[in-house]
Amino acid sequence: QRIRSQNIVPCTVSQLLAAEQVDETFRIRDVEISQVTIMGIIRHAEKAPTNILYKVDDMTAAPMDVRQWVDTDEAGGENVVVPPGTYVKVAGHLRSFQNKKSLVAFKIMPLENMNEFTTHILEIVNAHMILRKNLMSASRVPQSFSSAGMGDMGGYGGGGSLPVNGLTAHQSQVLNLIKSCPVPEGMSLQELKRELHNMSMSTIKQAVEFLSSEGHIYSTVDDDHYKSTDAE
Fold first, then answer.
1. Mean pLDDT in the chain?
2. Which of 14, 53, 63, 206 supports an S-S bond with 57, CB 3.0-4.6 Å?
3. Could you give the CA distance from residue 229 to residue 232 in angstroms, rounded to a whole number?
4. 104: confidence class by pLDDT, cuts 50, 70, 90
5. What is the pairing mode between strands 87-97 and 217-219?
6. Confidence (pTM)
């Protein structure tokens, strides 16, 4: 099953260089891409009668060739060469000739603000996560398989380190117990340990310290009893 991204996909140069070519199409992680944006600094610019060839460097790989065709009939802005040393956003089509990839640009825009560069990186992460999610739902991965894969990313705590709403699984468990405690003085560390017998006391204390510093819970009668700030 082929999935094609209809949108312009923000990419890094290294992703484009690693994209797999199948016939006339390019794929990143089995998603077909055609129109992309990259952002980087122009290292070299060379004007020919019919086109301008730039080398654009985003520091993720070697600079990429970006060719912009010029309209020889018009003396418009497209004919102006953007000087080397300028940070630009390039929108274009990915091409390959003799196994060398390049972009044919339909727009080259100098950046007005370096925050655009940071935004571009975030957009890359977001876009490729969405593409990957669409791909996984399209291939209908069995739930057990995908969650097993996620557990590997959890690192030192197994799946317990994967954040949910900004909290790890351990922190969420501790917070939910404290929230559910009806007594006015809140829940003690000992009661938490009794409920969470699979969790060490030091892990519970770390979770409590984090939740307290983040404003989710507060201490009541002493440093051992905690109540949720959301509690009625």
1. 80
2. 63
3. 8
4. very high
5. unpaired
6. 0.56
For residue 145, pLDDT over 80 is answered with no
Record the tokens describing residue 82, joined without a space.
Answer: 């953007």
Percentage of the chain lying above the pLDDT 70 cut: 80
Amino acid identity, position 163? P
Q: Tell me the per-residue pLDDT of 178-204, one tens digit each, with 9 for 90 and over.
A: 888 888 888 888 888 888 877 888 888
Instruction: Provide DSSP, the chain.
Output: --EE--SPEE--HHHHHHPEEETTEEEETTEEE-EEEEEEEEEEEEE-SSEEEEEEE-SSSSPEEEEEE--TT--SGGGSPPPTT-EEEEEEEEEEETTEEEEEEEEEEE-S-THHHHHHHHHHHHHHHHHHHHHHHHTT--HHHHHHHHHHHTGGGGGGGS-BTTB-HHHHHHHHHHHH--STT-EEHHHHHHHTTTS-HHHHHHHHHHHHHTTSEEE-SSTTEEEETT--
How many residues comprise the chain?
232
Q: How far apart are CA 101 and CA 227, in angstroms?
A: 59
Can you tell me the distance from the alpha carbon of 139 to that of 148, in angstroms, rounded to the nearest whole number?
16
Check whether 38 has a pLDDT greater than 50: yes
The pairing of strands 217-219 and 64-69 is: unpaired
Kindly state the tokens that stand for 109.
């825009």
Dihedral (C-alpha) 177, 183, 184, 187: value to the nearest 10 degrees? -40
